[in-house]
């Protein structure tokens, strides 16, 4: 039995593509290499799905275990070229950074068919799959998977680009006519070079190398028990008896100056923001289940349904499934249905999206449409008009019809991260260009400021925001929310912020908001008598995420000591600064969820404290209405009004 070794591909007399040429097919993409690696490798895994089980997609950042390091050095350097353009030798010998530790990034999938078919590229296509040939040997093969994401397979070049050694190890298990078969091979995409043969003659080489069973002009993979034994020696994960799938080990991944910990988190976020449509639990078995590991520790992948920003797109995607408020985008000439689009508007707290989202163009509250076609992977987040508020987000999903899939696939660059109609011709060019025109038209209408109506004249929300901006110090964002003292306060004498009794409203002290620019507001009127407590609102209201959606929270503090009964309320503010009195039929209104107190919570509008102590902190929690300005009012009740109000 021959020892596995490296084979370097010479340039044939008729010429061939060089390793540099293959790597250049990716060009200079607008998103970072780690994001492309997630997109391309997950797309390959998703295309390979089989059966009625989810696809398990795993990224594992690790180091070669010490007990396997010697096998890596001896087995993977057999027959390696003696050239600076083959850096694996320096890496495995520890000469690169004066360290023998070798890092790896393993891209794994299970619930997939593995890399099957012939192991030689000169075998006729026939009916047998050619996954091995397409991934390991050829460049530019057309897809043979129905509704597959890949077009010509150039994206696999990112695996080599990510490796400092330009080297990957492919370990796969696949079905053959004689049963399940394990295969393993090493592949290097380095740089073209000249090597001297045994006769001292220099010959040019393409820079492509394979490690395995070397034959005269090609390399066969190690197969069966031999492949499993070599995989075990290298410390690779074994396949279960009835399991198929593929592991691709990227040797010494290069992430620049980023630490492996930061990269692991980036990869987890990139999975969520690039693959969320196929991760949703509602898909059942037809979904992808991702995992990220860093040196034996699990790195949580954000759950799309619970992730701020992404939830907006998930809601729009669900509209596509239900058909609620879904539009079909049409091309007029030639007449052709292009796809379906749904939009969702939500309130979100101010936040900074993760780096993986920012690299996709989402740097603030989402105002984008997620473009996708048949594989239902994210192609691009197409931006629309910015919302009128930093707290108002909208997200859309456009999914092309299946019969248009080839048109949109042809518009994609090698990294599948855009639709470029300029690279098409004829009707296909018109279809893709018209898609963006129709999306723009729909977004212009959807993102237009809504009108809030009262008994007076309707006013656009933007106008309301501008009007309140000079009146309300406690405004969160532009037109997002406001907290105001009630215009008419019930009974008693006002208590100034220093806690001493003050003049009554009759003396002209009916203050309705704190000093401009101050962090605190006067106490609520209605509890001036000694032995009774009152409330002072503190700071601006702020948004908070929760399982039931976005909440608006107003903090407060008790002033004085004694019994306290207060009512919180909320409404929509209109252009004159007053609360909406006559909402349109069927329209939503803000809802008071309850009060939070140091020791317990109270549901509903009323809070009843028999013995409130000065300095006690509490918060009023409101569920606001999207695309409106919420006014929060707090009123302290007189004793006679508090009769019957329980704790």
Number of helical regions: 13
What is the overall pLDDT average? 82
What is the CA-atom radius of gyration, in angstroms?
32 Å
Number of domains: 3
Straight-line distance between termini: 84 Å
| Helicity level | 10-25%
- Low-pLDDT parts are 147-152, 450-520, 525-530
Structural class: alpha+beta
Record field, number of beta strands: 29
What characterizes the major β-sheet? Answer: 12 strands, mixed
* Estimated share of beta-strand residues: 25-35%
Shape from CA axes? elongated
Verbal overview:
By secondary structure, the protein is of the alpha+beta class. It contains 13 helices and 29 strands. The chain has three domains: 5-306, no CATH class; 310-446, no CATH class; 459-642, no CATH class. Strands 1, 2, 3, 4, 5, 6, 7, 8, 9, 10, 11 and 12 form a twelve-stranded mixed β-sheet that branches. A hairpin with a 2-residue loop joins β4 (167-176) and β5. The protein is elongated, with a radius of gyration of 32 Å.
